[in-house]
């Protein structure tokens, strides 16, 4: 890092502080203002926030690391702009009509209070175990690699960077609330896109072009069935990424994340109206087409640079691990100034992702737990409780990091493993709840419970069999909850949870018609359908079609 790099970083921090100060001066008199920016966000802010909140450390380290180790396998999870379109076209009308602040609150309206509590609990657990812990861990690792500092004041620089990042982001979230997340995302997104694009271009130039990357990856087998790193669709006998399991598992996880998770949907709930919310998802879907090129392919470029022993400034390019691919590219390839710009992009992504996590977690606790038992609490009290909840979630996430490192040796695999067992039950409850008015409150509730119990059992089995060091032998339990491919298990969980919901719904009473009016396809009034139809035009359809065509073209090229 040179003087010019630190000047660029300093200018970025000044701009960031300016936005935070401006946001702080704005009036945030209610919890709705604090959490949802007053429901006045436009499509530009919504789309940018969706993208910036999604692109966290798991992409900067995990996705590039996946590209460097397994090639195109994880691209299925990143070329999911089509799933964001489902959020905008299918789910936005129901969420807008419900006028809810959180996803658990939506389930309360559709099902019952118990469903709301269950989903809030699952969401908070998932935030601590995955998103907070993963993002903080990867953030510390990124800056340790980029700055090349092993220790500072006798302390591992990883922990200094990680804790420093958390403190800065927590202050920024506590002071500004959702508006600071939304408006800062507008500044962060173009910086991250530009910085990553520079990495992509310089990486391709250093390796000798895209043909050299293809050549290096095509000759590297990933299984004994003839597939290489370049193949997106692999043999169904592949132990890690069988094509059928990937298509099913990535869709289930993607549906849960993009269409039902508070972390993402909160951005849409802050929209001024249904039109702005939908167009925000379309813009976000366009942006979601880029991570494969900005993060995964650079990981493949790093692999090719190392495999071909390419010299950078007279020194052979090498990585300490696959997860070090992206920060190593930043440190080795970028000239002065650009390196500082990309560090700003990394810092921006980390802060936006963490800030969104903190804010969403605080919102879930405040609205779905505290206000539920303290309905007379003042708005000032709710804001204070939300900020305290932010601190608690951060501390718990940091305390989980050492345990997480023992459970999963590969960051991105750990993340997807946890999400694959938490997603199916939630996805089933939302999907059947909106598709059919015959789905009963008890049906949805037991679908959530069964999914959570099975998921925790699977996670517990993984922790036990991978860390106990005991020869467990063979049993049906081990075969089902540990040996079964994680993607097929995810798909099986979805089917099982949907079956539970359907069976329970047969034997239990339906919700009153007035309770679910406008919350399902079959209960929407003609006026509500007309309002939804009036909220979009041909350009929304055209842009959505373009996104789908790009997705199909991507699959065709890397098939």
Describe this structure in words.
The protein has 559 residues and is mainly alpha-helical. Helix content is 76%, strand content 1%. It has 23 helices and 4 strands. The protein has helices at 3-25, 31-36, 43-54, 57-70, 75-78, 81-98, 103-110, 113-147, 157-207, 210-218, 243-260, 262-269, 274-288, 291-307, 325-333, 338-373, 379-407, 411-435, 441-467, 476-483, 486-507, 526-534, 538-558, and strands at 151-152, 155-156, 311-312, 315-316. The strands form 2 sheets. It has a two-stranded antiparallel ribbon with strand order 1-2. Strands 3-4 form a two-stranded antiparallel ribbon. Helix 11 crosses helix 12 (262-269). The mean pLDDT is 83.
Distance between the termini: 40 Å
The amount of beta strand, in percent, is under 5%
In total, how many beta strands? 4
Counting DSSP H or I runs of 4 or more residues, the number of helices is: 23
